[in-house]
Design brief:
Helix content is about 40%, strand content about 15%. The chain contains 6 helices and 7 strands; from the N terminus they run H-H-E-H-E-H-E-E-H-E-E-E-H.
């Protein structure tokens, strides 16, 4: 058999194994993610978020469902913030861990953010599925401190009013990025 056939068989087999690993990774977390797939956030959307939400070195950015960790790495590189990402998809988690090797102050946790205490977060980034947005809004309102910023790609947080809506011109379909701020409870009660 010619060498090119062996090379083709090896490459096709490798792609098949990768596809099966991806399918298994998605299937393992379906009960928690409610069908949301790992989708990388585009660099255009990350740049728009970074420009709209300037950060300080002492702040903590938390990415809920961090995928390959690109948002965390970019925030660390741009602003020097501490960053924590939560990821349940085993393949995405491993990808994030490898990509973040040697990046100081970036932590990737193989853990559900539903079980995490987010009270120390200054900025929360998420690109999640619509089915989880209502319970997520409740969790964020109850745990985040006044002044904390929430950034949600594509989907609104029910019963919350965005402070700003971005539409990066180069983004596919010009999908919105919603920016929210947790308000002081006492100030809202006085209104």
């Amino acid at each position: 058999m010619p060498n090119w056939i062996w090379i083709f068989i090896i490459l096709a087999g490798g792609l098949f194994v990768l596809k099966m690993a991806y399918a298994l990774s998605v299937a393992l977390v379906l009960p928690v993610t409610k069908g949301a797939l790992y989708v990388s956030t585009s660099n255009v959307r990350i740049a728009a978020f970074m420009e709209a939400v300037p950060m300080k070195t002492a702040q903590l950015l938390v990415d809920l469902g961090c995928g390959d960790g690109r948002v965390l790495r970019k925030a660390r590189k741009t602003y020097g913030v501490r960053a924590i990402g939560f990821e349940l998809n085993p393949l995405a988690y491993l990808s994030a861990r490898v990509a973040c090797l040697g990046t100081s102050s970036v932590e990737i946790r193989f853990q559900s953010f539903w079980k995490a205490d987010l009270s120390k977060a200054d900025i929360v980034f998420c690109y999640l599925f619509p089915d989880v947005m209502k319970p997520l809004a409740n969790k964020l309102r109850s745990e985040l401190k006044p002044g904390a910023v929430i950034v949600s790609c594509n989907f609104v947080l029910p019963d919350m009013v965005p402070e700003r809506v971005l539409r990066p011109g180069n983004s596919l379909h010009n999908d919105p990025i919603y920016i929210y701020r947790i308000r002081e409870v006492k100030a809202e009660l006085k209104r």
